[in-house]
Design a protein that fits this description.
The complex is a heterodimer of chains A (about 350) and B (about 375). Chain A has two domains: about 180 residues, Butyryl-Coa Dehydrogenase, subunit A, domain 1 (Orthogonal Bundle), CATH 1.10.540; about 150 residues, Butyryl-CoA Dehydrogenase, subunit A, domain 3 (Up-down Bundle), CATH 1.20.140.10. Chain A has eleven helices and nine strands. In chain A, helix 6 packs antiparallel against helix 7 and helix 8 packs antiparallel against helix 10. Chain A is globular. Chain B has about 375 residues and is α+β, with helices and mostly antiparallel strands. Chain B has three domains: about 130 residues, Butyryl-Coa Dehydrogenase, subunit A, domain 1 (Orthogonal Bundle); about 110 residues, Butyryl-CoA Dehydrogenase, subunit A, domain 2; about 130 residues, Butyryl-CoA Dehydrogenase, subunit A, domain 3 (Up-down Bundle), CATH 1.20.140. Helix content of chain B is about 45%, strand content about 15%. Chain B has twelve helices and eight strands. In chain B, helix 7 runs parallel beside helix 10 and helix 10 crosses helix 12. The radius of gyration of chain B is 21 Å and the shape is globular. The mean pLDDT of chain B is about 95. The chains are: A alpha+beta (about 350), B alpha+beta (about 375).
Chain lengths: ~350, ~375
């Protein structure tokens, strides 16, 4: 990790920790959660445009370098669409659109889109945090070429699709909505792959926090006259969580340490599979060792496990990527398995 | 959790070239019918001739210093060579323990004379080692060993028995963990020492124990008042525990913790590729993802070893995850027999599968049980 990134991480950690508490997280579903102060400071740090080109007033960091920041933000459990904004701004900037200021989100999917003149109609599917912004990007194919489209939604046409799993999530019907900008998508890699990487980094940040919560809780909570952490049955369950987390982190470091991560789809698939399957185990074990308190809104564990539930399904679940990599090996090359792996 | 990081290490071109060299060597050996690919070959498939040939290629004792006849190459180079050998199911059992851990222990703790006389022979594939840790009454609880070494004039008297000593019947030496003074009440880890024991000495007897597959690979080794010379003491008297912990990091982190049955997977895929394309890509993808993650973690540990770190906890992670992976792999293939019944598999593949099925319970016992691995991790997490 270079020194510059180290300083950014340290400052980010201070600022997020200052603002984020569990009460703030609990309000995130509201129409107007009070996140203005937090977002202002995040913007002053330059985080939203950290992967945006210099000429658009960004910091120009490679996207892989932003992953530790995204991971940190979700380790602290920051209830703002930072990863969504960083990724949206990156895509705009790469495609030569000057990213607007403020929060911006993306639609994970879009269908039945019709463009007439400067207006677009159709369905945007699974849009995170639409309660905090009206600016959305999405990707669609027009005449065999992928385009990135930036719109400002008409808030009246928004229908909340409550996502029980985690943060606010919406489906949206655009009706003759004005297009703010449209350009050919200029990415070396699919949007889905980028999303899979970012969601994995978020999951790993959350899983680190969950492990810490489990260790703290089990060290303090006493039953049968001793701390839960002194029971071997508990120790072994928590060790299993640590193993899952370590494997996911190893898969992530392959991506973060590589400037050209987009050249190897295989590593991206492995990361999403590894983080997603770890999440499944960690959700189950962390709730098991916490007992009933972990099942309340009042205690913070559920905020993190709910997010994991959602993120592991975004941008392809484990099955999707297992099938992807299995096909890549079985159908697209004539190598034997060992040659393929090495 | 930052202390459990596994930094990503890229394979350089030099390493890839080395990989190619080893691979073509193996292909030639296979063409010359020098060996038959075997499951769990690092435990079960010993060929002193093959070991000697590897020695002559410079692929044993790779990281040992030139001064003692070693090749002075990196831990990463050694990693690449061992990976290639394991993936091909080559007969590496004879030299495995000497090359993996005993040589390093001698280089670290042995006398100048021991280094000069033994290390060159390990490097040339002519000197084999067995592990002397477990005893009939000491399995996971290694600190409870009862084998005793008593100081006598000009040396030591060794008395006790070691068990599950893989390959002892083919080995020249065993590094024996023994009590040299009673355990203190506060610290059971005190008073243990390691000894370098020549297995050809009088009063040493090695008796095979058939395992559940009917094969003989492990043994009971009896030391009935064996007289050892003074310099048989390896390292510092009373510091055997910390020495043995370091040895275990070498033992647990390598690719044998997830590639023991790779030949089975490879042959299975080659045989059933057409069917897998139709209905098995998800299963194979899952195995690839896990295997590749393990390879990265183990390679990362090799680089930590290269940097002189002691990645004992990281080794426990790899062992725990690797053991799970191998069990999952065999189980995945077994479920596939739903599509093509086992009796229709080619006989060589059936044999590999049956070998693996029978041997798989031992993978999470040898080198430390799952329970011990989880205990090590829990301690590092501050739970104990």
């Amino acid at each position: 990790m270079n020194e510059e990134l180290g300083i950014i991480l340290e400052t980010t950690s201070k600022i997020l920790s200052k603002h984020v508490n569990h009460k703030l997280r609990q309000n995130v579903d509201n129409e107007n959660p009070d996140l203005a102060n937090l977002w202002t400071e995040v913007e002053q740090l330059g985080l939203p445009k950290i992967a945006v080109k210099d000429k658009f007033n960004g910091s120009g960091l490679p996207l892989s370098s932003t992953l530790p920041i995204i991971k940190l933000s979700n380790n602290i459990g920051t209830p703002i669409p930072l990863s969504e904004t960083i990724l949206s701004n990156y895509i705009l900037s790469e495609s030569e659109i000057n990213p607007p200021n403020g929060i911006i989100t993306y639609a994970i999917d879009a269908k039945d889109l019709k463009i007439i003149g400067n207006e677009i109609s159709g369905d945007l599917i699974s849009v995170p945090y639409l309660n905090l912004t009206d600016k959305i990007i999405f990707i669609t194919e027009i005449d065999n070429s992928k385009q990135v489209i930036l719109v400002k939604s008409n808030t009246e046409e928004k229908e909340l699709k409550k996502n029980f799993l985690s943060e606010p999530r919406y489906n949206l019907k655009l009706k003759k909505c004005k297009i703010l900008d449209i350009k050919p998508l200029n990415l070396s890699i699919n949007f889905k792959y980028l999303g899979a990487i970012v969601r994995s980094a978020q999951m790993i940040g959350a899983m680190e926090k969950i492990l810490d919560l489990c260790i703290d809780y089990c060290s303090q909570r006493k039953q049968f006259g001793r701390a839960l952490s002194k029971f071997q049955a508990i120790q072994h369950q928590i060790s299993e969580m640590a193993v899952e987390l370590a494997a996911s982190s190893a898969a992530l470091s392959t991506i973060t340490n590589s400037e050209v991560f987009y050249k190897n789809n295989k590593d991206i698939a492995i990361l999403k599979i590894r983080a997603g399957s770890a999440a499944g185990k960690i959700i189950a074990i962390s709730h098991q060792v916490h007992g009933a308190i972990g099942f309340t809104q009042e205690y913070e564990l559920a905020y993190f496990t709910r997010n994991l539930n959602s993120w592991r399904n975004d941008f392809g679940n484990e099955s999707y990527w297992e099938d992807f990599i299995g096909k890549d090996f079985l159908e697209k090359n004539n190598k034997n398995l060992w040659e393929y792996l090495t | 959790m930052s202390k459990f990081n596994f930094p990503s290490i890229e394979e350089t071109n030099d390493l890839s070239e080395l990989r190619k060299d080893v691979r073509s060597f193996i292909t030639n050996s296979l063409n010359d019918k020098e060996f038959e690919p075997a499951a769990d070959a690092w435990v079960f498939s010993a060929s002193p001739q093959f070991s000697k040939k590897l020695g002559s290629m410079g692929w044993l004792g790779m990281s040992f210093p030139k001064k003692y006849g070693g090749n002075q190459r990196t831990a990463l180079e050694r990693y690449v060579v061992t990976e290639e050998l394991l993936a091909s199911g080559a007969p590496v059992a004879a030299h495995w323990i000497a090359d993996r851990q005993s040589g390093s222990q001698i280089l670290r703790y042995g006398s100048e004379e021991q280094k000069k006389s033994i290390i060159p022979k390990i490097t040339s594939g002519e000197c084999f080692f067995a592990i002397g840790m477990s005893e009939p009454d000491s399995g996971s609880d290694l600190a409870s060993v009862k084998t005793k070494a008593t100081k006598i004039e000009n040396g030591w008297n060794l008395e006790g028995r070691k068990i599950w000593s893989t390959g002892a019947h083919l080995s020249n030496y065993m590094i024996v963990l023994a009590r040299t003074s009673p355990a203190s009440e506060k610290n059971r880890h005190e008073g243990l020492s390691q000894f370098l024991v020549d297995l050809s000495l009088p009063n040493v007897s090695v008796k095979g124990i058939p395992d559940m597959t009917g094969q003989r690979h492990f043994n009971e080794t009896l030391f009935d008042n064996v007289i050892l010379s003074e310099d048989a003491l390896l390292g510092v008297e009373g510091k055997g525990w910390s020495q043995v912990v370091g040895e275990l990091a070498l033992e647990r982190s390598g690719p044998e913790r997830f590639l023991s049955h790779f030949t089975l997977l490879e042959s299975f895929i080659n045989e059933f590729k057409d069917i897998l394309i139709k209905s098995g890509s998800k299963l194979i993808g899952k195995l690839i993802a896990e295997l590749q993650t393990l390879r990265r973690m183990s390679f990362s540990i090799a680089s930590m070893l290269q940097n002189g770190e002691s990645p004992e906890t990281q080794a426990a992670f790899v062992k725990e995850l690797g053991n799970k992976f191998e069990k999952m792999m065999v189980e995945t293939l077994r479920e596939f027999s739903n599509i093509i019944p086992l009796y229709e598999w080619p006989s060589q593949l059936q044999n590999l599968f049956e070998d693996a099925t029978l041997r798989i319970p031992s993978n999470s016992l040898r080198g430390g049980t799952t329970e011990i691995m989880r205990g090590i991790i829990a301690r590092q997490l501050g739970l104990r």
